[in-house]
Amino acid sequence: MRSKPLLVAVGLTAVLMGLVFFAGWLFGSRSGEDAAAVPAPPRASAGAQWHPDSLLEPQIDAIRRGVPVDQEGSPPPLARVENADLKRVRAYPMQPPTIPHTIDGYQVDKNSNRCMLCHARANAATFQAPPVSVTHYMDRDDQFLATISPRRYFCSQCHVVQTDAQPLVASGFQDIDSLISAQPGSE
Q1: What total number of domains does the chain contain?
Q2: Which of 77, 92, 75, 73 lies closest to 164 in space, CA to CA?
Q3: Percentages of the chain per state (helix, strand, coil), in multiples of 5
């Protein structure tokens, strides 16, 4: 019976834990008058903003656009697709060009790519569409392929349609041509 002291220790520990739990339950609950003495945390109002110096002030997530966390906000209206076929300037270097027309109903899957009907290098002149860049015909080892590369096959993975949505974040990007032309004596 070498394990007898171990069993006694485990039993005493269980009894002690039970007593601590019971004492916490009995003395830890507040009576109605004690609970009233503790101030309630402040509630967020519709125009409240977070202040970094105080964690007690109401906080509102910027994505919620001023709607308190305990209220349901209404979503902004969906942006409409622009179908003007006007090429936009890029918002940052190396940005994939946006699609200036609607692509609803375009089939782009492993069997067919509707975009390539007009934008394949062989058909671009016929449809007056910009041809796909030669980089889309290169594999990961920079070897040129006869057809579009599988890693560039799904166009909407990088290219998005142009909408009338206002940007959420302002951009001060200027392309190199506008910077050079803005310098004095660059003519």
Answers
A1: 1
A2: 77
A3: 30, 5, 65
Sequence-ordered alpha helix ranges (H) in the chain: 4-28, 32-37, 115-119, 124-127, 176-182
Query: pLDDT per residue over 40-56, tens digit each?
Result: 444 444 444 545 554 55
Q: Which CATH number covers residue 143?
A: 1.10.1130.10
The pLDDT assigned to 114 comes to: 94
DSSP SS3 for 13: helix
Ranges under pLDDT 70 in the chain: 1, 29-62, 185-187
Question: What is the model's pLDDT at position 61?
Answer: 61
User: In 3D, which of 84, 155, 85, 142 has the Cα closest to residue 114?
Assistant: 155
Return the closest-CA partner of residue 78 out of 173, 164, 181, 172. 164
Q: Is residue 39 part of a domain?
A: no
Query: Identity (one letter) of the amino acid at 53?
Result: D
Confidence (pLDDT) at 45: 47
- pTM attached to this predicted model: 0.53
pLDDT at 29: 60
187 assigned to some structural domain: yes
Distance CA 62, CA 60 (A): 6
Domain that holds residue 156: 80-165+174-187
